[in-house]
C-alpha cells in the first residue's frame, strides 16, 4: 500500500462537519455519531482545549487530558508552587478548579491518563538523571479526583521511558517495559509482564473499549506496523499492516486510529484490524506535523 492510499480509500465515505484548527493547516472531519472526537490538541509547549467548535489556548497549563464523557479536565500547571508540582482538576460544568500537590522538586509529574470510569488519574513521575542525559521515569502518581488526593508510588526498576496508563478494569497501571509491557498494582508491585509485544501505542488508551485487546507497535519479526494482543496472556491477536507513522489508539473495539502520509502532508484515519482505511478523521499539513509537533487528543464521548 502506498502512503497516499491511506487516505484516498477512506475519502470516498467522507461526510459530516469540518472543524479547522486556526493557523495550522489542520481540518477535523467529524460526524454526529462518532464515538470519539478531538477534545484538545498540543503544538510544542502550547495546549488548546475544546469548547464546542472552538479551541481555546491554555496559557497556564502544559499537558492536559479530558475525562471520558468530557466532564473533567486534568491539566499540569506550568509553574511549581512552593517547590511542588501539581495537577489541576477542572470541572467543566461549574468551572471550578482543584489544584492537588503531586511531587516535590526535583521530580515532576505529567502526562495524565484518566481511568475508564473517570474517577482517577495516573501521572508519570520523572527525575533528571543528573548527567545531562534527560529525564527518567521513576514511578507514578495516582490521583483520586473526588477526594482531591494524590499518592506517589515509586517503582523500582521502571523502564526509563515508561508512561503509565490504566488497565481496562482501572485496577492496575501499565507501561512499556523494554521490549514488552508491564502491569503494576497501584502500590507499585508487579502484577505481570508481557514480553516481546513491542511498545504501547499512543492515544487515550492502548486498550480497546471492551478491554479484550491491547495495541502495540509490532516487533520487527512480525513484519507489520501495529499488533493487537490479549492483554492478560500475551497471545497475538492481529498483525496490522498499515503505513502508519503514529497511532492515537482505538476508535472502537474493531478499529484503530492511525496517522499516515497523505499527499504532501498527513492524515488521521480510522482503520480496521486488516489495515484497511475506513474514513478520514483529520487532514494535517506537513508544517503542523513536523514543525509544530502536533498531537491530537481524542476522547471517548
UniProtKB/TrEMBL annotation:
Q: What name does UniProt use for this protein? A: TolB family protein
Top-level taxon of the source organism: Bacteria
Q: Which SUPFAM superfamilies match?
A: DPP6 N-terminal domain-like (SSF82171)
